[in-house]
Amino acid sequence: MSLTARHLLLLGGTSDIGRAVAKHYADNGWQVTLAARDVEAASRNAADINTRQPDAGVAVEGLDILETESFVSFLDALHPLPDTVVCVVGMLGDQEQAETDPDHATRIMRTNYEGPALFLDMIAARFVSRGYGMIIGVSSVAGDRGRASNYAYGSAKAGFTAFLSGLRNRLATKNVHVATVKPGFVETRMTAGMDLPGALTAKPKDVAERIAGIEIRPRDVIYVLPVWRLVMFVIRSIPEPIFKKLKL
Fold it and tell me: What is the pLDDT averaged over residues 81-105?
């Protein structure tokens, strides 16, 4: 796969998926800026990529997705404005804790929906003013239907999916493409210890390749593993009286 070398801003630079995406773009000649709350951890990812690809020059900027008041100054300092922004920010959290701890539930919801949505809305306005841009948001199949096992996380991802859909609709005539990526299960530190079904589980590099493919063939909604489109169609089609009796 070949990409035209440009500039990528990646939100979530400490995650396994974020590192894979950054490496894939850097390997194809892009300038990459990793944005993350933990600058030290993001710098380790940047250093690893730069060591493997000496011409990459991956940079790091501090950004806490929950500190929405810092977004304007962060964007003002971006020179140049990136051609593409990819948001892989996410927090699975603990559903049982979220049911009794409002602070934990709030952090899950703000991390997966509020912060990313507000940031992408702001950068979208700048892309429109410039005349072009690409926005790629990594959501989740968990947002396709609420389930007892992770509805705090799933509801936030559902909101993010709806936001990306609305943003895509608004910008359809503005030369700014908005894509939604739904990975399903991915082998990362966030899912470490979980019993993941092999046929439904992707690797971070699989997600990176699918995201990078949007640069070549723009798509609106992508399930990283196509089988998830069928799986979620079936789950969404289950009548509510039956669904309530299932342990999902």
Answer: 97
